[in-house]
Amino acid sequence: MTESGGPDHTGGSPPPAGAARPDPGTADPDPTDPSPTDPSPAGPDPADPNPAEAWTRALTGTACAPMARARIREHLDGHLARLTGLLAATPFDPDDGAAVGRWLVSARFGPHSLQRTIEVLGRLLPDLADAPADRVITLLGAVAAGYAAAARGQVFTEQEEVRSSLLRALERAQDDLHDSEERFRQVFASSGVGIAIFDTDGAVVEANPALVAMLGPEEGRYGEGWHGEGRHDESHRGEPRHGGAPREEPPADARRPPAEPTGDRPGERHPGGAVPEGRRGSSALFTAEDLAVLRADQARVLRSGDDTFRTERRFTGPNGDPMWTNVALSVVRDADGRPKYHVAVVEDTTEQRVLREYLRHQALHDVLTGLPNRQGFLPVLERVLSRPGSVTLCYLDVHGVGVVNDGLGYEAGDELLKAVAGRLTAAVAGEVATVARLGGDEFVVLVEDSPGTPGVPALAGAIEAGLAEPVRLADRRFVLSAAMGFVRVPTRGVDAMALLRRAHSTLRRAERGGRGQWEVYDEVRDARDRERLRLVAAVADAVAGGAINIDYPPVERDGARVAVSARLRWRDGGGEPVRHEECLRFADEMGVSGRLAGWLLDEACSFAAVEGLPVLVALSSDQSRDPELTAPVAEALRASDLPPHRLWLALSAHGLAVDPDAVEDNLTTLADMGVRRLLHGFTCALVELSVLERQLLHGVVPVDPPPEPLAREALAAALPLVRSTGALVVSDGRWPGADLVARS
């Protein structure tokens, strides 16, 4: 019998009763396999360039599989390709990963091989597939589930074989009593799963060595031939149990009970000796509670009319620890069809269950901090919202984690996150609260409100005070701060995902106010932000689907058209049209500004070439800082055959404030190409005036006139300085005295 539960021979007669059996912790080696057992360590070499070789080394170090090493390696290459493909697939479906676990069982690798497989794949797959940790954990759970299912199926198959052997032995008892007794004895004694035979009253008649090893006490375990509690009296000792030749008596030491059992310790077993009160009439292998459950199952089998029943049961182990098992019950009937015996085949599945629970815990908890992750937190939130009352949800973004990672190393960053987890937990220790890490530097705190729960300002103050204490990292003190978004709502009718979204959007509004700020959810502001974010989310599809249009209003000097302006216009559904500046800003937020700029330049240059007029094109902040900007400009000019001086390209003054070097590099390259260069969103800031003078720009497009008189007058007074450099002032008509008016 192998660890996986499969038979250790494929045909022929079973091994004799006294023959040595292989260690159940290893698989049988193939004598025809020319390759020796790999003497290398079981663990993978981190520097090994071949992941399949690392996996092969781990498996061959745990079992002697009846397969050549090269063949194992070939299989593992295919399984690695399968697993990495599943991790990269969209949508993600981990169920096919169960095939790897089934192969391990079919190849006769035991639970220790499964453990090493989980450890090796847990280290290899994140790098091979570049997949999120939660996908890797879920896929490894599918591998373990496939292994458990295959092992259980193999055991159930063996159980059926055992049952068939028992029935055949009983049916042929009258004709061949001796042979049937020996055949049954071999199956009974050599089986790797536990077998117990009960009489119709539910008392144990006999248990095989595997069951004794599984449930019996550490001392005084009986060997082959041990049988229950003397259900057969002394006058029948030495006689066959089902007829046939007499059986050899077990050694005297094996039949002698332990000295003076007390019977007063919970779960104490007394093989062959006195049975403690509450367990009289039961086998010493089972506690009274466990035996009562088995008897109830036996009664259920008889009532159902079906002679077989399979279930999962928790028994009490030798040391009082819980032991999870798969139990298959069957009824053995006499020649008249009346029940004569009950047979229970018991498989210990504790290790598989512990592994399954471990993987489930890993899937629902953050490995670093031990807090629930997003998958673990959402069920908690849903349960809390299903109860009456109110809750307070705080969504936090911890500042400075990226700086610590880059400056002090990821180990210091990990220590920082663990400190945050501990301090958040301590800050709400007096409340019924759940703290979770949703990913990166984002945490949530869920408080189930009570009459003594403080208000949001007090909660925010408690959290800020907890984070304010400096953390020592790499011999330096680091002060924590976090932006926070709070939502306090009644639980009735609230959706968990909607509540989480409200808290997150409130956090983002708080972050716009500066570091370490917090805000409370505002329904009106949230509705306004949601509409804007809906448009931001839809702009990528609009760019790809051609839903954005371009208008070409005139650019006039003294009423005469001297150029045209390329202006984006997008109407999503029945709402108001989205203006050019908003289209650019939304594209920057969604990361599609490069694609939008290429299309806008192509269309604008083609239109200008046909009209024979210059075209003014204003780009976004991200587009203005793009180091590859000149490539789509050159392509648009080449494809349209437009002279470069007829392209008036306005870069963003905001982009200049963010990354002046990148914007000025683009301005220099565009000048070399002969393109006319402008700055739009011009505020007369010092950096803008410096670039204007150095680059000798063709013109500027000032910002919309500010509502404050002082600011408006200051900007108007600075515009003559702009003209003194030779630059044109281009306005939409709201700035008096502009050189050019770009109609909208």
From TrEMBL:
Entry keywords, A to Z: Nucleotidyltransferase, Transferase
Keyword Nucleotidyltransferase (UniProt): yes
EAL domain boundaries: 532-744
Listed InterPro entries: Biofilm_reg_signaling, EAL_dom, EAL_sf, GGDEF_dom, Nucleotide_cyclase, PAC, PAS, PAS-assoc_C
Region (Disordered): 1-53, 222-283
Domain of life from the UniProt record: Bacteria
A family per Pfam: PAS_9
Name by which UniProt lists this protein: Diguanylate cyclase domain-containing protein
Start and end residues of each GGDEF domain: 389-523
EC number(s) per entry: 2.7.7.65
Residue stretches making up the PAS domain: 180-216
Source organism per UniProt: Saccharothrix lopnurensis
Keyword Transferase tagged: yes
Record's compositionally biased regions (Low complexity): 18-29
